[in-house]
Amino acid sequence: MSTHASQSFLEEKGKYPGIFSWIFSTDHKRIGILYLVSMLSFFAVGVMLGIMIRLELIAPGQTIMPPQMYNAIFTLHGVIMIFLFVIPGLAAPFGNFFLPILIGAKDVAFPRLNLLSWYLFVGGAAIVILSLFTGGGPPDTGWTFYVPYSLRTGTNVTLAVFGAFVLGFSSILTGVNFVSTIHMLRAPGMKLSQMPLFPWTLYATGWVQILATPILSITLLLIILERVFGIGLFEASKGGDPVLYQHLFWIYSHPAVYIMILPAMGAISEMIATFSQKRVFGYKAMVAATLSIAFVGYLVWGHHMFVSGQSDMAVIIFSLLTFLVAIPSGVKVFNWVATLYKGRISLEPPMLFSLSFIFLFSIGGLSGLVQGALATDIHVHDTTFVVAHFHYVMFGGTGFAFFGALHYWFPKMFGKMYNKKVASVAWAIMFVGFNVLYFPMFIMGMRGMPRRYYDYLPEFQPLHFLSTVGSWILVTGIIILFTNLIVALRRNNRAPANPWNGATLEWKIPSPPPLENFDEEPKITGGPYEFTR
Amino acid sequence: MEKQSVHTSPSYTLYIFIWLSLLVGTGLTVAVAGVNLRTFAIVVALLIATVKTTLVIFYFMHLKYEDRLFRIMLIFAISTLAVILSLTFADIIYR
Amino acid sequence: MQETTALIHDHAIPAQGAKIGMWLFLFTELLLFGGMFLLYAVYRMLYPTDFHYAATDLNVFVGTINTIILLTSSLTMALSIAALERGNKKLSLAMLAITIICGLIFMVNKYFEWTTKFHHGIYPGSEALEARSHGENLFYGLYFVMTGLHGLHVLIGMIVLAVLFVFIMKNPHEKIALSSHQLKGILGSRLSIMNANNKTLWQSDLIDKNLKEMRVELRYEDHKKDKINHRDLIKLENGGLYWHLVDIIWIFLFPLFYLIT
Q1: Could you say which architecture CATH assigns to the domain C21-173+227-258?
Q2: What is the ipTM score, two decimals?
Q3: Would the CB atoms of B7 and C60 count as touching at under 8 Å?
Q4: Is the minimum CB–CB distance between A25 and chain C shorter than 8 Å?
Q5: Do C244 and B33 touch (CB under 8 A)?
Q6: Whole-prediction pTM
Q7: Which distant-in-sequence residues (6+ apart) come within 8 Å of A192 by Cβ?
Q8: Strand partners, C175
Q9: C201 touches chain B (CB under 8 A)
């Protein structure tokens, strides 16, 4: 494409040598890769902890670890996977790397702030990890840090909560950066209505990060203050109301679910369009659905608290509002399927991940309705049904979208192509393993298997066993997937500038992109999905 | 660069006038607190505080002179807070 | 200089962008305190009489004085920005100094207020407080957390403004350094200095691939000169926005804690 040979951002030598050329770089592409690498390391730890939980549950009674350790491990699995993997999710690595490129900019609005938020991310993670080995040992409260237990337990909740507080700060700064970038730095001629859908979801996500995360910050701060000073704001014996803690926690944590899933939906839209070689069906409806999911996300937090002693009125209101979320989500699924219709579909690995996303996310979403309805929720509340539901949404949804996006953009990010056959095999194994792992949890939950329990009745054993076997299959798939990508990095199988015949701006520049993305500022005249045959 | 040297901000006197209004508002809210208005006391106090805040935001913080985008964003942020407060009270009031 | 200026502009985000970022950050502050106001609202509804009773122990006079101090500091802050905009560096610095001093007085008052409470045995988790009714305990819990958090913001604001004070006071000293890869955009052109009538006074060699680095440095002779760096103005405006937000929070805290007797 470019007339005079410009170096890629990977080769370009900045001011600093070696590792410092990465950790002192304010280039959004390098920061994106920093996020990618650090998040995947945490993901590996989270997977390992998950495997240990499943292994413990393969048979009733003690199998490989004592109960206290089990409590610590599922807490840690939750904290690591939520705060260190799915919340940064697709926004931090792919958002950083591709948001400026997709809107035709050279970088994000505040590059130095961007680097700072990565430092905060790593710093917060380090504090969380430090909390495991100091004080009273690893926290055992579950990732929700519910009072009153989180105020009384002797484990090192204070430090872990502080780590999460710092992570929240990182998330806020990313949100501020992305929203400002989209308002200020779009290429000349690009109206908001001509922006690809991935930036749109990052925009909505940015707003949720800005307006919801501070509530988490103050909640976590209060836990620390309560543990240090014993103020009593959440302690019934001092006049406080523990249910208010749950309110504050979920005021953040429900919108946080949309921080996790929205960028995934955006990336799926990009992939579905590219691999169908068709304009996204109902672009405007997609944008509207994105924004309304982000907004409705603020209205439904009470559905996590149906059995917490809320007023009946609140329960009814929250249940009603919860069903509203299904509408924009339904619009999205419908539009994806409609985009596929009569498209020229090519089943490349990213597309396989995208299609399975639609399938798994639909199961996750529909099972969510079961819990949004009042009567059925009381039955399945705090059972493995809930665990299955949110793993279908978070892993089957965000996780599969993440791996899809990784395969979609990998050639662009590193300029190398992986072995597509191996990638497809890895996908197939993961897909099977995933369902074998989590589907039995739906059934067990319906039959009354509580979540987070260390021990269980013998009647649940066959399904628990099946589920554990599923975890092995899933991990096999994940290992193959990453081995394939690492091998690709080491080999020299150059990827072309546009391996998928994509239409958005990132495919119009060389792979990997040059330091300043575009040799000439792109002029935008049409919509984002004009495919050429 | 050249555009920045144009004075878009209000005059010194306007600022001092706003400051005086804020002081009057403070005096008013202290004076009203002495009167027994029962439940209205909180409403009046918050009303005065809101008026004061509006003055600060529009003049001291230049919102009046900014792009429309800023106002839309502010309204959005405040309404989010309002939604959060009112839905929490849907629980507290009926409990 | 034209090419260089154009290149710098590409990199520096326009003033409005920095302001958008600042407002977005202020929204997060709004929501942060919003969470606390939520707790306040709920507990005040649950324990109205206890709250009234507990508030009688707070000193309305000190509270009012502090309100006036903060409002005044907001005025001087706004004036400082306006002065800098009009090129009046001395006035701007004087106003900024008053703003910081107001913040300092506010904090000193707060210090004496808190320590007086401590002397009466009222501090979070104290026995004297737990012996009182639930509502009073919660009132003081909220009081310490909210005014404490606010005080922390005042402190941060003071530090930010002090840093800005130094920035503005220092003679502007512009330095542009571009390494070879950044010169790509202006490859093939020349650096030149022109006067107002577009007459070229000086022209550099052709900028080609052999050029390793380009530095332009502007120094000023007189340190007391009213020379203003426009990037400082944007920073000062953002610092001001933060300071005003802190003021707004106090506008609400004051009646809610001091005036409910």
Answers
A1: Up-down Bundle (1.20)
A2: 0.93
A3: no
A4: no
A5: no
A6: 0.92
A7: A182, A186
A8: C217
A9: no
